[in-house]
């Protein structure tokens, strides 16, 4: 196994998005935490070298003819014996399969982990992946690498799927890490990522979620590392990497409210507001004034909130857990505390009651637009409903035979920018086009002129209404113009593909 007296190499690949999307820009400044945690755990093993290639943040890497990292050159320069793939996003799974086929042909063992392969291990095992890892990957990867190094069979390792001698998919039950284990994991070592420039450091401590949103693939009883562990991570990253900006990836930081309060208070006592945090929170957390105040004191600037929809029927179908009545009031509370809100919406959520009197698409669009305007949201993202693998939404649509086959709408279209299922209350075109129209209204080109006007008017605005008011308007217009350019670029490519025309032709649809 050892080559030229060197330790074998484990390379972990975070696959490229299939096309430019709303996350592409920020992805060039950050990375995915899960694979870095797994790589860090593996790097503590005596006898293995470890590196991570994040294809979405990869300046200076050798590129192939399609502009993506050239794995042939990477493998020639520094051959990996084991290659792991992060499969958290269905839209990147086709890229994983292409790379897995290449690495397997090179003689490497291929491993996959993440939500997509967790729910559909066999599919990837038949596309070039040797082992699928389920659940917390930190411990499993260590056992797998140790056994591979010793040339031992892997069949008994808990938490893996593989094809057995009869070519049947076999899955061993997972061992979940308890809270003590989560708090004793090593800090994420971002130094393992080659070619990446990390400006926003992802950190986190909570796994699983106690809510049951129908469209979400995050499942399992929530477990968390201690808040002290999260604080220690921040301190270590500040000291060793001069980190200033963090994204707390926990889906619901309120899951452990006491821990969240402890963490933000400790950050405020140690750093004041000199660090910058982006968090994900539920909208109704606005009722928790103590938590919001602690967040503000600690330097939280942006809250990413899954609004999903301003329409009660849709919120109910999603099992979001609240209605639209308080949404504006909660939004105002967040704004009152000075947070920027990045609001995430789902367009065209399919009804679970066909007999219900449903709103026309135009009326739905009007309600979305009116809510976004009234709420003064800072940035918005409106994606089409995605029947993600492993979700109850997908199971429901499959039962109704409404999901388009993968030959027509492949996994790479599962990024929220494309229709993936047959709607029952609007046309295919309405499902496809209306979110883009809503986004175009929000990210309008006139924002460019407003940026210039705001700069000219700065002294007066600053004197009359203060820095915060001026900065919010200026920053939001900057974001709006950036969003406008992104939509323009995306539409250019989209129109070339004739996606919706082909889909309509194939399915002879109702519009
Ligand atoms: S959408 Fe958020 S709150 Fe709902 S189940 Fe998923 S992680 Fe939990």
Structural account:
The chain is α/β, with parallel strands linked by helices. It is 42% helix and 15% strand. The protein is built from 19 helices and 16 strands. The strands form three sheets. The protein has an eight-stranded mixed β-sheet with strand order 7-6-5-4-3-1-2-8, with helices on both faces. The chain has a six-stranded parallel β-sheet with strand order 9-12-13-14-15-16. Strand 15, helix 14 and strand 16 form a beta-alpha-beta unit. Helix 16 runs antiparallel to helix 18 and helix 17 runs antiparallel to helix 18 (458-497). The longest helix has 40 residues, at 458-497. The N and C termini lie far apart (60 Å). The structure holds iron/sulfur cluster. The site of iron/sulfur cluster (SF4) has 8 residues, from loops.
Extended strand count: 16
Bound molecules: iron/sulfur cluster
- Global mean pLDDT: 93
If you compute it from the alpha carbons, what radius of gyration comes out, rounded to the nearest whole angstrom? 24 Å
Largest sheet: 8 strands, mixed
Shape: globular
Percentage of β-strand residues: 5-15%
**How far from one another are the termini?**
60 Å
Strand order of the largest sheet: 7-6-5-4-3-1-2-8
Q: What is the count of DSSP helices, taking H or I runs of 4+ residues?
A: 19
What is this structure's SSE topology?
Elements: E1 9-14, H1 24-27, H2 33-43, E2 49-54, H3 71-77, E3 82-86, H4 93-105, E4 109-113, H5 115-119, H6 121-125, E5 131-133, H7 137-150, E6 160-163, E7 169-171, H8 179-183, E8 193-194, E9 200-203, E10 206-207, E11 223-224, H9 227-241, E12 245-248, H10 257-271, E13 276-281, H11 289-297, E14 300-308, H12 312-318, H13 327-336, E15 340-347, H14 361-375, E16 379-384, H15 392-399, H16 428-442, H17 447-456, H18 458-497, H19 499-507
Parallel strand pairs: 1-2, 1-3, 2-8, 3-4, 4-5, 9-12, 12-13, 13-14, 14-15, 15-16
Antiparallel strand pairs: 5-6, 6-7, 10-11
Helix pairs in contact: 2-7, 9-10, 10-11, 14-16, 16-18, 17-18
The protein binds iron/sulfur cluster (SF4).
């Amino acid at each position: 196994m050892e080559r030229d007296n060197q330790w074998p190499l484990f390379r972990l690949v975070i696959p490229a998005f299939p096309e430019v999307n709303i996350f592409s820009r920020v992805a060039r400044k950050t990375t995915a935490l899960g694979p870095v945690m797994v790589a860090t755990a593996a790097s503590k093993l005596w006898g293995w070298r470890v590196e991570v290639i994040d294809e979405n943040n990869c300046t200076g890497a050798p590129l192939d003819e399609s502009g993506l990292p050239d794995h042939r050159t990477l493998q020639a320069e520094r051959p990996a014996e084991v290659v792991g793939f992060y499969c958290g996003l269905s839209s990147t799974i086709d890229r994983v399969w292409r790379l897995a086929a290449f690495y397997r042909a090179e003689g490497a063992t291929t491993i996959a982990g993440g939500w997509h392969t967790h729910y559909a291990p066999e599919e990837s095992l038949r596309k070039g992946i040797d082992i699928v890892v389920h659940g917390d990957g930190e411990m499993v990867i260590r056992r797998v690498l140790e056994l591979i190094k010793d040339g031992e069979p892997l069949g008994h390792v808990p938490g893996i799927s593989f094809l057995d001698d009869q070519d049947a998919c076999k899955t061993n039950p997972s061992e979940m890490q308890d809270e003590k284990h989560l708090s004793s994991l090593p800090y994420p070592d971002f130094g393992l990522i080659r070619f990446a420039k990390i400006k926003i450091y992802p950190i986190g401590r909570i796994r699983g979620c106690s809510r049951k949103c129908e469209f979400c693939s995050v499942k399992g009883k929530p477990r968390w590392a201690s808040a002290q562990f999260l604080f220690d991570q921040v301190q270590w990253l500040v000291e060793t990497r001069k980190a200033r900006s963090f994204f707390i990836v926990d889906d619901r930081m309120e899951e452990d409210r006491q821990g969240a309060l402890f963490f933000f208070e400790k950050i405020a006592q140690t750093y004041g507001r000199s660090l910058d945090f982006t968090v994900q929170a539920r909208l109704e957390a606005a009722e928790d004034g103590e938590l919001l105040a602690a967040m503000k004191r600690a330097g939280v600037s942006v809250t990413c909130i899954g609004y999903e929809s301003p329409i009660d029927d849709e919120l109910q179908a999603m099992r979001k857990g609240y209605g639209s009545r308080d949404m504006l009031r909660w939004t105002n509370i967040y704004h009152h505390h000075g947070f920027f809100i990045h609001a995430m919406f789902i367009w065209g959520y399919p009804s679970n009651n066909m007999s219900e009197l449903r709103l026309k698409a135009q009326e739905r669009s009007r309600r979305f637009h009116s809510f976004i305007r009234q709420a003064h949201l800072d940035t918005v993202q409106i994606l089409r409903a995605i029947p993600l693998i492993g979700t109850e939404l997908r199971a429901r649509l499959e039962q109704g035979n409404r999901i388009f086959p993968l030959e027509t709408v492949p996994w790479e279209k599962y990024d929220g920018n494309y229709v993936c299922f047959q709607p029952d209350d609007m046309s295919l075109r309405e499902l496809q086009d209306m979110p883009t129209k809503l986004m175009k209204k929000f990210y309008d080109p006139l924002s460019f002129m407003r940026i210039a006007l705001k700069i000219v008017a700065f002294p007066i605005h600053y004197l009359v209404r203060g820095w915060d008011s001026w900065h919010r308007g200026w920053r939001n217009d900057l974001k709006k113009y950036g969003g406008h350019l992104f939509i323009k670029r995306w539409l250019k490519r989209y129109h070339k593909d004739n996606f919706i025309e082909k889909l309509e032709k194939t399915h002879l649809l109702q519009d």
